[in-house]
Amino acid sequence: MIAYPVGASGEVLLFHAEVIARFKRHQQLRWWQCEAGGQLFARFRGDAIDIVEATGPRRSDRRSRYNYEPDRRAEQREIDERFPLGLHFIGDWHTHPEDYPGPSGIDLRSTAEGVRKSRHGLHAFVMVIAGRVPFPAGLYVALYDGNAHHVLEPALRGGSED
After folding, report:
1. 62 within domain boundaries
2. In a domain, 97, yes or no
3. What's phi and psi for 52, nearest 5 deg?
4. What pLDDT does 162 receive?
5. 25: domain range?
6. Residue 81 is part of a domain; what is its CATH number?
7. Which residues have C-beta within 8 Å of that of residue 148, sequence separation ≥ 6?
8. Distance (Å, rounded) from C-alpha 99 to C-alpha 114?
9. Is the dihedral of CA 41, 80, 71, 121 positive or negative?
10. Is 86 left (phi over 0), alpha (psi -120 to 50) or beta?
11. Burial of 82 (0-12, 13-18, 19+ CB in 10 A)
């Protein structure tokens, strides 16, 4: 598990082992691997935001070495299926073929559009980009409130990322 404190709020994003394993499975470590991505689903427990599932990639997504375009209809189905199970959509993840990833202009515009168009009670959406180096150094984790992105730094919990 990897923990990311959310500023001085007392809240913490907790990425469970299954979620980290999905990011690892899709790292772009070879020249021929395409970007991959999906959605993040969490349960809220006091000040803990337990990120317990990462979906994707889907066969219907459009993917290339430097681009990832999700199937928006499939994403909405995932949200609709998980909400009755107590899983809340909180953001997206995708890969980049770089060691230490950072968001592109397209990433920022896409996240801003998602925040604006979605009906939700969240203050921000989570954006995760998985790079090539081992995690957590190879993860970019930020909150995006529609105006700015706030990069989060990891605080390992239990001394391990798994």
Report:
1. yes
2. yes
3. -105, -10
4. 46
5. 2-156
6. 3.40.140.10
7. none
8. 26
9. negative
10. left
11. middle
Under the banding of pLDDT at 50, 70 and 90, the label for residue 25 is very high
Q: Which two tokens stand for residue 77?
A: 């189905």
Total domains, the chain:
1
Tokens of 116: 């604006």
Q: Is residue 106 part of a domain?
A: yes
pLDDT of residue 121: 61
Is residue 53 within 8 A of residue 18, CB to CB? The reply is yes
Q: Which two tokens stand for residue 148?
A: 């700015």
In a domain, 115, yes or no: yes
Q: pTM to 2 decimals?
A: 0.90
In the chain, the amino acid numbered 49 is: I
Q: How confident is the model at residue 145 (pLDDT cuts 50, 70, 90)?
A: confident
Strand order in the sheet with 149-151: 149-151, 139-144, 125-130, 88-95, 37-45, 48-54, 12-15, 2-5, 155-156
Rounded-to-integer distance, Cα 59 and Cα 71, Å: 9
| Structure tokens that stand for 117 in this block | 């168009």
Distance CA 53, CA 144 (A): 20
